[in-house]
Amino acid sequence: MTNNTASQPAEPIHPTMKAISQDTLGDPGVLKEIEVARPEPGVGQVLVAVHAAGVNPTDWKHRRFGAFLGEPPFTLGWDVSGVVEAVGIGVSLFKPGDEVFGMLPYPYGAGAHAEYVTGPTRAFVPRPAGLSHVEAGALPLVSLTAWQALVDNARVEAGQRVLVHAAAGGVGHAAVQIAKARGAYVIGTASAPKHDFVRGLGADEVIDYRTADFVKEARDIDVVLDPLGGEDRLRSLEVLRPGGILVSILPGNFGEVAERAAELGVRATDMLVEHDQAGMTAVAALADSGRLRVHVSKTYPLSEAAKAHAEGETGRVTGKLVLTVRP
């Protein structure tokens, strides 16, 4: 039977919560821990007590430039792992006490860098027993991006050759594993100190982008995953076999790429990640089977979100950074 009223937790929740917010755009110093009203789940929503929340490049880009969210104030964060505290009208998939993880609707559903967050029920799936909250909090955005790029857009199949740029990064290290799980031959680009890490993910070859030209090293590629943009995106078209596809996760200013792709007889598309319960279910299954592991480089308490942003902006992080909110 459909719920007619919101389901509340057994014990009252404190009416306020801590959250990371900013009043202006700028460097990590604009991030402040504040006390705000705890949200209530609306129709078709769940209220989640956040245990861990990933930090992604899109967080510091929004902090600095506003991007899709425009002018502050706002609370960032799309990755969530936690426990359902209450459910809104019409919710039947989860109940208070369920452990879940997922990605809030991108871009306008941000708010995970807080003690509680609300989101649509179908942004979440049950947390696999084999994943800690920290691991689960690191996984959603990068793995969904990689899944939607490689599976939904590129339709990667067994035996195909896949080139993953920035293979040691957040999206890259998930993409290597997802492509391998699909039976592909995977080539990654990374700096030399990260080659062992990328091979450990399952990559068949690793190219040092600092000393080698990937256009000469990688040939007859079926799929390129591009998290870089710029000149590398354009040059990546040259490694594709006829009919191959480049999927860029950095949308915008794509006209030149599309024109060059047409000249070469290949395909190119750009995309933004979307919250997606079917994709999260597939990601959770891969993680539960051990075929998808998330590498957490470092964790920070919620109050030190600014330090996590500063670390991330160095561009040297392997895998993911995570904010811990509850034990």
Key descriptive features of the protein:
six-stranded parallel beta sheet; Quinone Oxidoreductase, Chain A, domain 1; alpha/beta; 327 residues; seven-stranded mixed beta sheet; 2 domains; 10 helices; Rossmann fold; 15 strands
Question: Care to give the gist of this entry?
Answer:
The chain is of the alpha/beta class. Helix content is 27%, strand content 27%.
Describe this structure in words.
This protein folds into two domains: 155 residues, Medium-chain alcohol dehydrogenases, catalytic domain (Quinone Oxidoreductase, Chain A, domain 1, Alpha-Beta Complex); 129 residues, NAD(P)-binding Rossmann-like Domain (Rossmann fold, 3-Layer(aba) Sandwich). With 327 residues, it is an alpha/beta fold. Strand 14, helix 10 and strand 15 form a beta-alpha-beta unit. Helix 3 packs across helix 4. It is built from ten helices and 15 strands.
The number of E-state strands comes to 15
The assigned CATH architecture of the largest domain is Alpha-Beta Complex
Query: Rg to the nearest angstrom?
Result: 20 Å
How many distinct helices?
A: 10
What's the SSE blueprint?
Blueprint lengths: L15 E6 L10 E6 L7 E11 L1 H9 L13 E9 L11 E5 L12 E5 L3 E3 L6 H6 L1 H14 L7 E4 L5 H12 L3 E6 L4 H6 L4 E4 L5 H4 L3 E6 L3 H7 L3 E9 L6 H10 L2 E4 L6 H13 L6 E6 L3 H8 L7 E5 L3
Parallel strand pairs: 8-9, 8-11, 9-10, 11-12, 12-13, 14-15
Antiparallel strand pairs: 1-2, 3-4, 3-6, 3-15, 4-5, 5-7
Helix pairs in contact: 3-4
